[in-house]
Amino acid sequence: MKLEGGCQCGDVRYVVDGEPEHVALCHCADCRKSSGAPVVAWAAFKTPDFALTAGNPSVYNSSGSAMRHFCPRCGTGISYTNEAYLPGLVDIQVATLDDPDALPPQAHIQVAERVGWMQHMGELPEFERYPG
Ligand SMILES: [Zn+2]
Ligand SMILES: [Zn+2]
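Above: the input record for the complex with zinc ion. Below: its predicted structure, written as tokens.
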């Protein structure tokens, strides 16, 4: 499976070519702070299956050996690497894919750190755009 993605401004572009090891929604506090969002969707690929095709992401060491790679211009988080816990893998942020529907999450992880109100998100009313 070959998929392309990139940041909001378009400076950083990448391609993944292969099958993800796993796809998950992460509820950990580090992902939350890093993204400014309550949950982040990740897909883990073998490192050789991931390649940058444009741009040069900045890297932030968010905790321990966790490295978060993001566009230095628009701030979009692109990928995550952790040689201690995820050797040989690169996690990409599924929402940065041109087609995020291509990699549906299979699990919720790190729910021990989940924001309380995230547990029942599926029960909220939905609107095509805005209510009223
Ligand atoms: Zn950008
Ligand atoms: Zn996380």
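Notes for the reader.
The chain has one domain: 2-116.
Strands lie at 2-6, 13-17, 22-26, 40-46, 50-54, 58-63, 66-70, 77-82, 89-93, 107-109.
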